[in-house]
């Protein structure tokens, strides 16, 4: 089996580090986190933890899965994002990505504790984003569940502004993060079971995609 560690991957990782430093330098991401009550150093630490955590998937449980009728298309983007092929055994391991899933969830709990949002507004925000995420997400053969990138953050921002203008930033982050987790991940487990994937990771599309990206963009828009 070909090793996923190659000069190309090293170059992509270095490029990601450079891009991260650039984004922090111009203040785009730190502006989002400052609206959530974080200092620049705390925001920087959270970003780096998410970046390095994006390579770690923690196993949760497994579900029965059926072999897809058509083989998945691979490689992706001309081979730049090739997947490690694993033998299909009739079950799919459900995992959670540390950087793209676990850290955003814990940060949402942190915001819940420190902002104490109204329970009704919180349920409407999370529930609204979850419904929209479920309706706009689709199974992508060989990859998992995909959805348009900006649908969830825009929805979370609009709901937060309408429900609680004075707390729109934390409510947008929480609604976007947990809404996508519920609507595009948990409610789509049955679809995952029909795709024949050896492993499916919640938030595993990468740090600056999926759940993590949804929360940040929602805050910037709110």
Write the layout of secondary structure elements.
Layout: H1 7-26, H2 28-34, H3 40-53, E1 57-64, E2 91-97, H4 98-115, H5 119-136, E3 138-140, E4 144-146, H6 151-163, H7 168-185, H8 189-192, E5 199-202, H9 210-221
Parallel strand pairs: 2-5
Antiparallel strand pairs: 1-2, 3-4
The main pleated sheet reads as: 3 strands, mixed
Widest beta sheet: strand line-up: 1-2-5
How would the global form be characterised? globular
**Using DSSP, what is the number of strands?**
5
Q: Could you name the key traits of this structure?
A:
222 residues, 3-stranded mixed β-sheet, single chain, mainly alpha, two-stranded antiparallel ribbon
Short recap of the structure:
By secondary structure, the protein is mainly alpha-helical. The protein contains 9 helices and 5 strands.
């Amino acid at each position: 089996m070909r090793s996923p560690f190659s000069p190309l991957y090293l170059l992509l990782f270095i490029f990601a580090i450079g891009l991260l430093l650039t984004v922090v330098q111009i203040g785009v991401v730190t502006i989002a986190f400052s609206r959530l009550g974080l200092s620049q150093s705390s925001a920087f630490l959270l970003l780096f933890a998410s970046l390095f955590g994006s390579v770690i998937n923690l196993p949760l449980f497994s579900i029965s899965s059926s072999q897809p009728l058509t083989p998945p298309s691979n490689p992706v983007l001309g081979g730049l994002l090739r997947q490690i092929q694993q033998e299909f055994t009739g079950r799919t391991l459900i995992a959670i990505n540390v950087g793209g899933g676990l850290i955003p969830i814990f940060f949402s709990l942190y915001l819940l504790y420190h902002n104490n949002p109204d329970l009704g507004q919180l349920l409407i925000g999370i529930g609204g984003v979850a419904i929209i995420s479920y309706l706009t997400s689709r199974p992508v053969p060989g990859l998992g569940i995909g959805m348009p990138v900006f649908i969830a953050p825009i929805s979370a921002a609009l709901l937060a502004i309408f429900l609680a203008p004075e707390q729109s930033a934390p409510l947008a982050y929480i609604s976007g993060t947990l809404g996508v987790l519920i609507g595009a991940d948990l409610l789509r487990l049955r679809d995952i079971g029909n795709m024949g994937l050896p492993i499916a990771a919640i938030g595993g599309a990468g740090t600056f995609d999926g759940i993590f990206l949804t929360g940040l963009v929602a805050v910037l828009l709110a």
